[in-house]
Amino acid sequence: MQTSPPPRTYRVKSFGCQMNVYDGERMAELLAAQGISPAPEGEDADLVVLNTCHIREKAAEKVYSDIGRIVKSGDKAGRKPLIAVAGCVAQAEGEEIMARAPAVGMVVGPQAYHRLPEMLERAVAGERASDTDMPAIAKFDALPERRKIGPSAFLTVQEGCDKFCTYCVVPYTRGAEISRPFASLIDEAHRLVDAGAREITLLGQNVNAWSGEDAAGRAVGLDGLIRELATLPGLQRIRYTTSHPADVTDGLIAAHGEVAKLMPFLHLPVQSGSDRVLRAMNRSHTADGYLRLLDRFRDARPDIAISGDFIVGFPGETEAEFADTLKLVETVGYAQCFSFKYSPRPGTPAATMDGQVAPEVMDDRLQRLQAALNRDQSAFNAASVGKRCAVLVERKGKKPRQWLGKSPWLQSVWFEGDHAIGDLVEVELVEAGPNSLAGRVLQPVHA
Ligand code: 5AD
Ligand code: SF4
Q: What is the pTM (predicted TM-score) of this model?
């Protein structure tokens, strides 16, 4: 590679999960701390970071086509933007990317992005730089201050996964489960609130596997962390995602009944309603065990909204087994859900299992599952009409005096009035659509 002038502008493009969104924000902060500015909308950046996701299908192909597009746009303008590939595709396929895409100057894995500034120096000097080490959580100590942020902020508390579900690449790309220390999380939460956050969503691939020691040296789980965060003045709402059924504790369930700032929402993926499929997935729970857990959450917090993830067409899944998934969906009554066609991931055990399901069968099952989930989501929203709740104002709408915020149950709510982003506004939910509701303002609640 040739030497290049130090970049003046950057753009970070994040794909995939919320943790990638968080990582993307932190990379942006890191670049801003180097004096690089975000590229104005519609303009090419001198440095483009592709923060990639590897969880499903054709992720790498997408990266190569994005790289192609950036190079082409640079050629047209007679410049050579610096391209960095970050995230889980970088971790899984970093060497191939370096070999196949000469335009890429940097490859950086999800556990190494705190070293971006040094890598950037090398790239500017004409040396291609790759770092896919997995140092234990060191990156968080090496990241700069949080910038001014919106009212709803993410905070990564735990990374990695030891569960090894047989379809999933996460244990390979994000590494073993690691919890960030209690004190540094409380510290970052304080800084997020100081920077404008009213809601914090605690993130982890298995967020409820988080463990640590509180200020008194006592062992605490996620519920202990939540209880401590709830004492932060200025912080109004706490959420967490994504949870694993095997790591649900009595304390976490109890917290839903006891901590007012903990929102009545639970994202607890089940993946399938068939015990045979769950075993083949190495999920360590049965359909019934999952349902009993939900009952306990509902006992603690009767209005809790349930969300989940499903995979259809896991190798060997029969029509009868898929019917068990539909049955489970009917039993739960989800408020919202994510559902995916099984996608064989290189290096995972399921990718070489017998009985790979034909694409048209997967399409058909996904369609039927999504029809059921959409029906339940609409029903959940319709049942919310008439409720009064606080809405956290997140952004302006298109019409004057129109705002968009989130209900405690994570529904999008539109309403009108004179408000500001970050306000908590008391509304009555008056009309429901499949993806959002309309609210009538009762009175502002104080932030
Ligand atoms: N194919 C399809 N979906 C997958 N997920 C994880 N790995 C795969 C895969 N190989 C889904 C799971 C998980 C969500 C984040 O992505 O449902 O909960
Ligand atoms: Fe992947 Fe399973 Fe770990 Fe979730 S629990 S990240 S699905 S291996």
A: 0.92
